[in-house]
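Researcher: Structure prediction, please.
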Amino acid sequence: MFDGGMKLQSKGLFVTGTDTGVGKTVATCAIAWQLRKRGLRVNVCKPFATGCRRDREGLVSEDAEAVAHFADCRQPLHVVNPIRYAQPLAPAVAAEVEKKPVDWAGLTRAIQVLDQTGDALVVEGVGGLLVPIDNGKGNDTFIVTVLDLACAIGYPVAVVARATLGTLNHTAMTVRLIQQAGLCVAGVIVNGYEGDIARASDASMATNREWITRMTGVPILATVPRCDPQNVQPQHGLLPGEVLDAVGMTYWPGVLGGSEPLVKGA
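Model: Predicted structure follows.
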């Protein structure tokens, strides 16, 4: 995959989730927007995207469009999102179904361009950490996952988690996996918190944040409120002020870290 890791020069952050659909793109957009507010030139990267729509110019990921918009990233979309598939599947599965192998050299070039043209780089993963992104050896004995990509990049990792019942197990497993791989966990972003009504709709919601910290030892970076889905459409440039303000409670330039590649050529 990568020989000796990416060895990036800019400070950055890798955003992952406990699962698909937990709000990684919303969190990535809000983080990029907050960094931009601080006067940084922010680049974003969505290395892999599936379920892309087909335009005249080719496959386009709405998530990649969203993060590029909120970061005000000036790089072309094919640089922000170098690997795209039409099928809504895990990338490795989509690559096999569509007979379109992962272009690792192209992905590396894209990340290097982003690294060299900004002050900060925020990378959004796809699904959870063990989602397969490539059948690395052309057989079933070696599968490249999102975690392998995160290790190659070497940035601290922010974990986006649900606020609801079941999040303790998923979040603790995700954090432990990151730490066992030798990466730094920057903290957890809890998404979809319902505040005072939580006790009525989901009793666990009132205690999950405390227990996440007790179980993992990592901080809660942000508690993002649940908002009307009609107002949460980052693909159309829409994020409620409550979401941006919640993510803004953390000083994100202080969360960014350097690239410390841990993969010696997977």
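Model: The two ends are 5 Å apart (CA to CA).
Researcher: Thanks, that helps.
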